[in-house]
Design a protein that fits this description.
This protein is mainly α and 184 residues long. The chain is 85% helix and 0% strand. The chain is built from eight helices and no strands. α2 runs antiparallel to α3, α3 packs antiparallel against α4 and α4 runs antiparallel to α5.
Length: 184
Amino acid sequence: MKDVFARLASDLFSAIVFLVVYLITDNVILATSVAIAGAFAQVVYARIKGQELNYMTYASLALVVVLGTVTLLTNDPRFMLAKPAIAHFAIGLIMLKRGWMLRYMPPIVVETVPEYVTAAGYAWAALMFVIGAGVIVVASTGDLKLWAFYLTVVAGGGKILAFAVQYVVLRLIVTSRRRAAARA
């Protein structure tokens, strides 16, 4: 679970930096510049540490640079605020691949209820699309407090709740099927 939160913080690093600097300074140009510099620093740090960088890392950097540049040119923070939506849509598209979630499950779950894991994978994709759409709606208001609330409480809480529900449901189904198989 700790790894999940670390990855989430890493993925949202530039957005968090942007928000913090913007709330402190009320300066879109400074906040955007620091967020872009932070995104580059994050990639450089990972390379120095010898961490393998995947496609999503470079895609995230490109989004920060492109949306940051548009934000700088227009002096409008809504472009930077929309970045998490694009990330959610991209992740949702990846999650549409049938069976993507099977590799993350314990063998007992994969052997017992692979069809439910596949369905859960599609449910996660749908959740990512809904959250992404919500980010766009909230970002279009330009209200940073609402945006921060949405990303942390609504989007973050929704993912935690979905994970907990998935865990409980899969555990109950696996236990039920294994008991039924033992009786048979």
